[in-house]
Write a structure and sequence with these properties.
Blueprint (H helix, E strand, L loop, with lengths): L1 E3 H11 L3 E8 L14 E9 L23 E8 L17 H9 L4 H14 L1 E3 L3 E9 L4 H6 L5 E3 H15 L12 H12 L4 H6 L2 E3 L3
Parallel strand pairs: 1-8, 4-6, 6-7
Antiparallel strand pairs: 2-3, 3-4, 5-6
Length: 215
């Protein structure tokens, strides 16, 4: 099957307990110098996860190690690539205030905190206190050593080593619980079908999922 990088990250986060928004557009607050109201940028996937998350009380599902925070609300901004992990220029220039606009639109912070949090996200990619964690998560086919030096605290999740193995294991371990999913979109239904059709062979599953999208 073929799936876009954004949709694969969307479902990975959703299966990890995040309430997810796909393609979160950052709209302008005023006209530019030419009088236009052009889109500023977008977050590929934005997700919120609450600290008391527990799916299946009888046999609790264990989420990815990067997201097992039982102390804080987590807001994740996901940047996805079909090739190496990367962060677009639009999020690297504080003067454009894209992060401030995204945080304001999300509603996760009081207005007085937005400047402080945005500054730390531009600098390190993560901000946290005792109740809330806001950070990037980078998704791609391979890790980026430059990005790792710039944002060492931000996870780089690769399709073949973290994302697809997690989905494969979740769908196989909880195949009966997850079988009733008529409301899922075609991407999630396809991933479930491929995971079970691989008959326990992770490499077969990975080989049958082609991730496409932004380079």
């Amino acid at each position: 099957m073929e799936i876009s990088s954004e949709r694969l990250a969307y479902w990975f986060l959703r299966l990890n307990g995040f309430m997810t928004i796909y393609n979160f557009v950052v709209h302008p607050e005023e006209a530019d110098k030419d009088g236009r109201y052009n889109q500023r940028t977008d977050v590929d996937v934005m997700g919120v996860r609450f600290p008391y998350r527990r799916e299946n009380r009888k046999r609790p599902m264990v989420d990815d190690v990067n997201f097992r925070d039982d102390q804080r609300v987590q807001l994740v901004l996901a940047e996805t690539k079909s090739n190496a992990c990367a962060l677009n220029k639009a999020w690297r220039e504080p003067s454009r205030e894209n992060m401030e606009m995204a945080l304001s639109a999300s509603g996760v912070l009081p207005p007085a905190r937005i400047t402080e949090v945005a500054a730390e996200l531009y600098r390190t990619g993560i901000w946290t206190d005792t109740q809330l964690c806001v950070r990037w998560a980078f998704f791609g086919a391979k890790t980026n050593s430059t990005l790792e030096r710039e944002f060492p605290a931000v996870p780089q999740l690769t399709w073949n080593h973290q994302v697809l193995p997690f989905i494969f294991n979740r769908f196989n371990e909880y195949r009966y619980e997850k079988r009733a999913h008529a409301q899922w979109d075609i991407d999630a239904q396809g991933l479930f079908t491929e995971a079970l059709a691989a008959y326990g062979d992770l490499n077969h599953f990975i080989g049958n999922v082609n991730v496409v999208g932004p380079a």
